[in-house]
């Protein structure tokens, strides 16, 4: 009987991804226990509904998250497929267990009595946890699945579907908690967590992709190569010669000033780029 052997590299990769998911869920659990649950801060999604219900019935938030996610996952199973739902189910259960572990079993004390500080640091910490989980190619379900279902049946983007779902839940928290400030704090948590997730997934070192069309391309390319010490690709199109280069943010002002002085008629396009592989740049996504 033949058995398929698993390469050591595959085992290491699997262990690394599993540890990422566990650490991410642990950070999420701490974010809820230290900041969000004690101050009834609703971050949107199924967890936001769980925090509202916890306010009234004192049922553990993690247990509520698992219960509320059952119909969501059944809906996702019919529309998104088994593979995605099973992977999301594992992430959801682990994150819910971590929340109740820190909040109910360990009984972690709130980190602050200031609601503004709680919303700021709770949002950042939640974003860090979710970002690590997402980098482990897992999900925690909830509004992610709802957003995908809305996208499939309405044609809206997945991101917009998730945004609509979270907006409705956070807005409803004001009515449920009889506190019109509650949604305002919730929006802070949502904004910060999504920004931090983007930073973790897309990279910390935002560089600039610069595309230059000019009659003085050789002078500009020489400046990029010798002064900025960056590579610049020179190629032709119908309008003439074009330079494409990637530079650090701190070098952008210097390059713009040189282009303006050398060729005021130059056409320049500047874009953010979140990860570059190559000499002179350190990748943050593939480490």
Low-confidence stretches: none
Number of self-contained structural domains = 2
Number of helices: 10
Number of distinct beta strands? 4
What structural category characterises the helix and strand content? alpha+beta
Overall average residue pLDDT? 85
| Radius of gyration computed on alpha carbons | 24 Å
Coarse shape: elongated
SSE arrangement, N to C: HHHHHHHHEHEEHE
Strand-residue fraction? Answer: 5-15%
Major β-sheet strand ordering: 2-3-1-4
Core attributes:
63% helix; 287 residues; 10% strand; Alpha-Beta Plaits; 4 strands; 4-stranded antiparallel β-sheet; single chain; 2 domains; elongated; alpha+beta
Q: Can you put this structure into words, describing what you see?
A:
- The chain is elongated.
- The protein has a four-stranded antiparallel sheet, with helices on one face.
- The protein contains ten helices and four strands, in the order H-H-H-H-H-H-H-H-E-H-E-E-H-E.
- The chain is of the alpha+beta class.
- Helix 1 packs antiparallel against helix 5, helix 2 runs parallel beside helix 7 and helix 3 runs antiparallel to helix 4.
Short description:
This protein is of the alpha+beta class and 287 residues long. The protein has helices at residues 8-36, 45-57, 61-79, 82-105, 115-135, 143-154, 158-176, 182-202, 217-227, 252-262, and strands spanning 207-213, 232-237, 240-247, 267-273.
Q: What order do the helices and strands come in, and which of them pair?
A:
Layout: H1 8-36, H2 45-57, H3 61-79, H4 82-105, H5 115-135, H6 143-154, H7 158-176, H8 182-202, E1 207-213, H9 217-227, E2 232-237, E3 240-247, H10 252-262, E4 267-273
Helix pairs in contact: 1-4, 1-5, 2-3, 2-7, 3-4, 3-6, 5-8, 6-7, 7-8, 9-10
